[in-house]
Amino acid sequence: MAELTLPSHPFGTDITTADIVAQMQTASGWEDRYRAVIQLGKKLPLMAEEDKDEQLKVSGCESQVWLRHQQIDDRFYFQADSDARIVRGLITLVLAAYHGKTYAEISAFDIDGYFDSLGLIAHLSPSRGNGLKAIVEQIKQLANSAA
Questions:
Q1: Which of 30, 41, 117, 135 is the right S-S partner for 88, CB 3.0 to 4.6 Å?
Q2: Dihedrals φ, ψ of 71, to 5°?
Q3: Cβ atoms of residues 9 and 44 within 8 Å
Q4: Any idea what the Cα angle at residue 52 is, between residues 71 and 129, rounded to 5°?
Q5: Which of 3-7, 65-69, 75-79, 94-98 shows the lowest mean pLDDT across its residues?
Q6: Structure confidence at residue 121 as a pLDDT band (50, 70, 90)
Q7: Residues near 123 by Cβ (< 8 Å), separated by ≥ 6?
Q8: How far apart, in whole angstroms, are the C-alpha atoms of residue 91 and residue 11?
Q9: Residue 1 scores a pLDDT above 90
Q10: Active-site residue numbers?
């Protein structure tokens, strides 16, 4: 099988969790945070339609979400996309935490504390919150199965 090459994006490298936390903490209210998340989602490369395979769909999401990964040495790289603008933005929050990280870094990262520091989860609908957790769980399972 040919080696998968995922398109690059700034999340986890140029845009880190610390950058996103700082951005969200300077936002004045939920609406500003929501706009910031939408803007982050615009920096996420679109996944080619032919790559949006049924096997790549994340179950548990209200919107359609596709997740691909590649492991190079001990690091995991991800590409994800959604048909919903806000979900594309939420994906960027997750990729900032996990993209380019090792299994140990992925499993040690306090994702709940990170989400709490962003001040977003309480404002998401229960189905959006569950979808976000489903994306996180799929990434953790992918990393765990390769560890």
A1: 41
A2: -110, 125
A3: yes
A4: 80
A5: 3-7
A6: confident
A7: 30, 33, 34
A8: 10
A9: no
A10: 61
- The CA distance from 14 to 61, in Å, is 27
Q: How many CB atoms lie within 10 A of CB 14?
A: 11
Q: What is the pLDDT of residues 94-113, one digit of tens each?
A: 999 999 999 999 999 999 99
107 within 8 A of 63, measured Cβ to Cβ: no
Q: What is the pTM of this model?
A: 0.92
Sequence-distant (6+) residues with CB within 8 A of 111 are 94, 97, 136
With 0-12 / 13-18 / 19 or more C-beta atoms within 10 angstroms meaning exposed / middle / buried, residue 112 is exposed
- CB burial readout 118-135, b (16+ within 10 A) else e: bebeeebeeebbebbbbb
In sequence order, the β-bridge partners of residue 102 are 75
